[in-house]
Amino acid sequence: MRIILLGAPGAGKGTQAQQIYQKAKLPLIVMGDIFREAIARKTEVGVKVEQYVKQGKLVPDDLVIEVIMARLKQDDCRNGFLLDGFPRTTEQADALDKAMKKDKATIDHVLYYAVPDEIVVERICGRRTCKKCNAIYHLKYSPPAVENVCDKCRGELFHRADDTPEVIEERLRAYHSATSPLLQYYRKQNILKEIDADRPVDKILEDTVRILKLA
Ligand code: AP5
Prior knowledge:
- The protein is of the alpha/beta class.
- The chain is 48% helix and 15% strand.
- The chain has helices at 13-24, 31-40, 44-55, 61-72, 90-102, 117-125, 165-179, 181-188, 201-212; strands at 2-7, 28-30, 81-84, 109-114, 127-130, 136-138, 157-158, 192-196.
- The strands form two sheets. The protein has a five-stranded parallel sheet with strand order 2-3-1-4-8. Strands 6-5-7 form a three-stranded antiparallel sheet.
- A hairpin with a 5-residue loop joins strand 5 (127-130) and strand 6 (136-138).
- Helix 1 packs across helix 9 and helix 2 (31-40) packs across helix 3.
- The longest helix has 15 residues, at 165-179.
- The radius of gyration is 16 Å and the shape is globular.
- It starts with a strand and ends with a helix.
- BIS(adenosine)-5'-pentaphosphate binds next to helix 1, helix 2, helix 3, helix 6 and strand 6.
- BIS(adenosine)-5'-pentaphosphate binds at residues 7, 9-15, 31-32, 35, 52-53, 56-59, 64, 85-86, 88, 92, 123-124, 126-127, 136-138, 141-142, 162, 171, 197, 200-201, 204.
């Protein structure tokens, strides 16, 4: 299966992606994690993308496409993948379509997690992420058993540098102007499934599992 997760910042894409990964065992490719890791390791890509990510602006398409295409060429992606955070522009979606055509492959599902803007600020400001395994928590909705310690791997939890109200505003602006046209893009291809993501995580997961036939 080849799956794309779409939705505003804080819609819960990462939270659902980790559950799908557990059930479907597909390679999980999280664009934001790739960039954050590159920034932390100060790689060539990391240096190039740091200012964009810090300010909540989209990284230029040519760089994003170069990074993701290299990842999709790896052996583990031959029979499927789960994409969180890519594509985010029509140009990125066109590049993915072109690569799929070349490989005689197709995208099977695009899951769109729909949430109103008002709730994403609270979700994102309360988010804590594990430094070691990237598990996602929320101080109010899904807190860890021990403060600042990951339940799964005992790693330390951190608050993302771009999870501030000012940067979230910019990320939402980028989402509405550049990413939301993809809803129509994939609707036209008849592969978009909309899920109401303004509900508890387990209810959203029920829909996700049903659509992907993972049960
Ligand atoms: P990225 O890391 O992809 O950030 P994002 O899209 O803004 O998405 P988030 O990770 O903030 O949200 P999410 O939907 O995964 O929500 P989560 O499950 O964590 O990108 C970061 C940056 O990288 C971009 O700004 C850009 O600069 C760059 N970039 C990345 N990809 C790019 C691309 N393709 N092109 C150009 N630039 C790119 O949930 C959020 C919180 O809510 C958590 O605390 C969670 O516990 C909680 N939560 C989740 N679901 C629920 C629920 N149902 N009820 C209550 N709480 C919930």
